[in-house]
């Protein structure tokens, strides 16, 4: 958890409530694979690292327990609920089923001002990728996709997709960042916006499908120091159309 928690320590916890900020940091650590199943994390130790009291950390961890992402370990702390390869296949398939049509629906409602606002976030994603900053990359990427999907006007769809996203494990992001391979996927956000601006739904659908495949291929590959960079998700997980 060194990267996410170091980035969020000390004076940077100031924008919203401490509990929400701690929750965001732990979510990012779960998604990026810094928090790994089997390791136990105590609220007191995390609070000391962040320079805050134990209460907001404990509240954040209990929220994740309620969402099924963490589990309590009696008298010791919390650990991440394991995700099998089959679990990740199911998450990927569900995201395809919901996120692709949700994005197309949002594109139909998007105004030029909406697209311009999303371009600002897409620029943040590219800057984070160029700097190899996984924490900033994940934060901006989540804001981009949440902001885009919210344009469809279906709150439950957005909440479900974000929940599925939080269940994803992207162990390969650190390796990709070290080798400068996040830039390609970062650029894909602008590709989506270009398709939206052109009113090209077929191009947008393919861009979203291609982008989501990263979450089950090179982004999810074990961080063994050798990034795959271009692996594709298993074809069997793609729902029929």
Radius of gyration: 18 Å
CATH fold type of the largest domain? Four Helix Bundle (Hemerythrin (Met), subunit A)
Strand content: under 5%
CATH class of the largest domain: Mainly Alpha
Give me the CATH architecture of the largest domain, please: Up-down Bundle
Shape: globular
- Structural domain tally: 2
Oligomer: single chain
Main beta sheet: strand number and arrangement? Answer: 2 strands, antiparallel
Spatial sequence of strands, sheet with the most strands: 1-2
What's the end-to-end separation, in Å?
39 Å
Helix content percent band:
55-70%
Report what the structure shows.
This protein is mainly α. The protein has two domains: 2-80, Winged helix-like DNA-binding domain superfamily/Winged helix DNA-binding domain (Arc Repressor Mutant, subunit A, Orthogonal Bundle), CATH 1.10.10.10; 85-237, Four Helix Bundle (Hemerythrin (Met), subunit A) (Up-down Bundle), CATH 1.20.120.530. 63% of the residues lie in helices and 3% in strands. The model is unreliable at 9-15 and 224-241 (pLDDT under 50).
Quick recap:
This protein has 241 residues and is mainly alpha-helical.
Layout of strands and helices, then pairs:
Layout: H1 2-7, H2 18-32, H3 43-50, H4 54-66, E1 70-73, E2 77-80, H5 85-109, H6 112-131, H7 134-150, H8 155-167, H9 173-178, H10 182-198, H11 201-213
Antiparallel strand pairs: 1-2
Defining traits:
2 domains, single chain, 241 residues, mainly alpha, Four Helix Bundle (Hemerythrin (Met), subunit A), globular
